[in-house]
Write a structure and sequence with these properties.
The protein is α/β, with parallel strands linked by helices. It has 2 domains: 119 residues, Alpha-Beta Complex (inorganic pyrophosphatase (n-terminal core)), CATH 3.90.1640.10; 117 residues, Roll (Diaminopimelate Epimerase, Chain A, domain 1). Helix content is 34%, strand content 18%. The chain has 8 helices and 9 strands. Strands 4-5-6-7-9-8 form a 6-stranded mixed sheet. Strands 1-2-3 form a 3-stranded parallel sheet, covered by helices on one side. Helix 2 runs parallel beside helix 4. The termini are far apart. The mean pLDDT is 95. GO terms for molecular function: nucleic acid binding. It comes from Streptococcus infantis X. This is DHHA1 domain protein.
Length: 248
C-alpha cells in the first residue's frame, strides 16, 4: 500500500466512501484536505464534507460509483470493475440482502462483462482462514439466544488473543448467527484494546439502527454498528434488542 504523507493532504481532494459518520473514518488527516466528498449508501445521519452524495437506495458505495461511471461515460479498467463487483457482492451478502435491487443486478452484470476471473474472486471472498473458522466455532458454542430469537456473543481481548485474530478480522463471522433458524437479530460485542466494545448489530427483519444511534453508532435498518463503554452498556444494548422482538 502506498505511504501517504501529511503533505499529501495539503490542498488535496479527499473522497470518503461507505462511511456514515466521522468517528468511523480511519485516518483523521482527511480534515487537512481542501475539499471533502462523501459518497455513501447509509442513512445520512451525520452530514460532513463539502459535497455529499448519499443514496440509501443503493446496495453499496460500489454500486454508486459504478453508476457514476456509467452516467458519465467513464471507461472502467478490468481491475476497477473487479473491485467494484467485489464491493457489491460483499455489501449484498452475495445478493442475499434486501438491498439487492434489479438495478444492483444490472450493474453487477455489466461489471461482469469485463475481463477478470469471477470464479476466483468469489472463491477468495468465501474463503476463511483456519483461525477464523475456529473463532466461528467459538461463536456458535457461546451464543446466547433468548426465547424470541435475540442473540449475542461477547469476544473479549482474551478470546481475540487465544484465536490470534484482530478486531477487523472478526468481521468475517458477523453473519454466522444469522444462519441459525431460531435467531432473528443479534449483536457481536468485540472488546477493544482500550476496554470499550465495538458492537456489530444485524437483523433479519426488525430494524435495529435506532438502537445503534442511541449508542454512538448508526447504519442500515438491518445492519448497523455501535459502541459500548462498559459491561453494563453491553447489557443495556442486548436488552433493547430483546425488547424489539418482545414488543412486536
Amino acid at each position: 500500500m502506498d505511504q501517504v504523507e501529511d503533505t499529501d493532504y495539503q490542498g488535496a481532494l479527499a473522497i470518503i466512501c461507505d462511511t456514515a459518520n466521522t468517528a468511523r473514518i480511519d485516518d483523521k488527516r482527511y480534515l487537512n484536505a481542501e475539499t471533502i466528498i462523501k459518497i455513501d449508501h447509509h442513512p445520512n445521519d451525520e452530514v460532513y464534507g463539502d459535497l455529499v452524495w448519499v443514496d440509501t437506495n443503493s446496495s453499496s458505495a460500489s454500486e454508486m460509483i459504478a453508476l457514476f461511471a456509467e452516467a458519465t461515460n467513464l471507461e472502467l479498467s478490468d481491475y476497477a470493475a473487479k473491485m467494484l463487483c467485489a464491493g457489491i457482492i460483499g455489501d449484498t451478502g452475495r445478493f442475499l440482502y434486501p438491498s439487492t435491487s434489479a438495478r444492483t443486478l444490472r450493474i453487477a452484470s455489466q461489471l461482469r462483462e469485463h475481463n477478470f476471473d469471477y470464479a476466483e474472486l468469489t472463491r477468495k471472498m468465501d474463503t476463511m482462514s483456519f483461525k477464523i473458522a475456529k473463532l466461528q466455532g467459538y461463536v456458535y458454542d457461546h451464543l446466547e439466544v433468548d426465547e424470541n430469537g435475540a442473540a449475542r456473543v461477547i469476544l473479549t481481548q482474551e478470546i481475540l488473543r487465544k484465536y490470534d485474530v484482530t478486531d477487523a478480522e472478526t468481521a468475517a463471522i458477523v453473519g454466522a448467527p444469522g444462519r441459525i433458524d431460531t435467531v432473528s437479530l443479534w449483536g457481536i460485542f468485540v472488546e477493544q484494546a482500550d476496554g470499550h466494545y465495538r458492537v456489530r448489530l444485524r437483523s433479519k427483519f426488525v430494524p435495529i439502527n435506532e438502537v445503534a444511534k442511541e449508542h454512538d453508532g448508526g447504519g442500515h435498518p438491518l445492519a448497523s454498528g455501535a459502541n459500548s463503554y462498559s459491561l453494563e452498556e453491553n447489557e443495556l444494548i442486548y436488552q433493547k434488542l430483546k425488547n424489539l422482538l418482545k414488543n412486536r
